[in-house]
Amino acid sequence: MNAIGITLxxxxxxxxxxxPRRFAVLAVVGSVCYITQGQEVIVGGFHFxxxxxxxxxxxxxxxxxxxxxxxxxxxxxxxxxxxAIVSAVVPGIRSGVWQEQVGGAYNVLxxxxxxxxxxxxxxxxxxxxxxxxxxxxxxxxxMVYESRTGTNIFNVMGGQGAxxxxxxxxxxxxxxxxxxxxxxxxATLMPLFVYLFFRPGQRPVAVAGLVAATAITFTANSSGxxxxxxxxxxxxAFWPLRKEMRRVRWGIVAFLAGLALVMEAPIxxxxxKVSDITGGDGWARSYLMDQCFRHFSDWWLMGTDxxxxxxxxxxxxxxxxxxNLYVSCAAGAGLAGLxxxxxxxxxxxxxxxxxxxxxxDLLPESEGLLWCCGCVLFAHVCTVFSNTYWDQxxxxxxxxxxxxxxxxxxxxxxxxxxxxxxDAAEAPAEGILAESAAQ
Length: 439
What we know:
The protein is mainly alpha-helical. The protein has helices at residues 3-18, 21-34, 50-64, 75-95, 99-118, 122-135, 137-149, 179-187, 190-197, 203-220, 223-237, 245-262, 270-278, 282-294, 296-299, 325-361, 367-383, 393-412, 418-426, 429-437; strands at 40-43, 46-49, 165-166, 169-170. It has one domain. Helix content is 68%, strand content 3%.
């Protein structure tokens, strides 16, 4: 850890500890954008890189200020807790190695609950977005500079060198450890800035945010960010059909079922077809899913460390590069881990659907934000078929799920719909999904 890293970590920690909630959360996002994971200290064998230190400060804040005690857990929160626990305990029992598993649970739980307690309502997100648009502008400029010169200014903090090339263009990464996650960070912000564009008086800052997010996506020069960006646009394009989403969902199911019948290869080889357009290693991702399916008996109970045959190429340690969140959860924690990550995402979509229905009746001004949050979630769900968010992007990924939990809970708690919140908190997942689908 050097002087620049220490200074930035201290600055983020001070803002996070003492600023009002709506400013404190910016310190967490700022640590993601502007501090590399090369800034770390090792304590008892645990690697406390910058984001883990900042999250620890955030957790201390929400404990000492009573913000955690005021939190009322809902079905999304409980699914997240179950996923984090199973993802740590199952591989720990299997391998007898707990250090990495505890670190993973630390990442998930602190990221989620720090955001859950700092961003608690629709108004908090609306207040956050203009500040976020401004916050990412220097990051975008640094990646544009990196793309033009081949010099990553974050090298002074242990960042990765700008020596990744694709078709003669640099694959830029800024403070991140790879271009994939850097680009996905920018791409998944785009729908939120589209929402901001239509808010009164926010158009100039929204345009700045859109330009910055697009620049981050473009300079990453990676197929994952491009897929995330395009997925977000697809979600936005379905806005006129928001009242007909039940038919849309069944149409998608029918379309995929039809493709499965006529395709010679399994349906997951669609990624290989998509990569023919977007570029990237779509075939390798498809092959990974295919091998995971074929080796179901090896991992369904307790996961597996034996993944050497799951990919066309092996990593140095002898296993496959599990560049797919769903496959990674299956290999790490077995069928329970895979079911729980899917359950968590289903509940996020379900609560968004319930809140959207409520917003249309009581809070029409929030309808657009909920839809754009759904577009961001859809972009992530598509992108994690080819990525596992292996660097500091995990902070904003789990933090975004926490914001969905907060904003939907605040809307469903409106007096005219308080019963729906209680139903959502108590009903099984199938009931929630059915209610969402019925809108």
